[in-house]
Amino acid sequence: MTGTRDGSPDRNGLRADEAFECPDCGARWYYTRHRCPDCGEREAATVELGVGELVAATRVEVTPADVRSPNRLGVAAFGDVRLVAQIDGSDVDVGDRVAFDGAYALREGDERREPRLTAADESDA
């Protein structure tokens, strides 16, 4: 598994904590799109998301043999940007502040990387 909190690229050349922002209308989104979902603009800048809030969580007990079990997943809100991510550790609950802990492969040998969240600490302001 790869991924760090040091700002190195993890997810398709982007850091796990970066989102897209439309220069025309200011809309923000996380997952790669060819156009702004609000106005259709083709260009986009990247912005750092910082600290968010865990708004929903679940724990998957039955997983394929090559996926960790239990596998905690959550929906996190970073302002108006929401995303689904793995949750690192059991000390994060709905309503807690969360920060990115890099992007990780779900399965060994998988080249695709997805974000992982952890409890935010005071240095994650």
TrEMBL record:
Designated name of the protein: Zn-ribbon domain-containing OB-fold protein
Organism name: Halobellus rubicundus
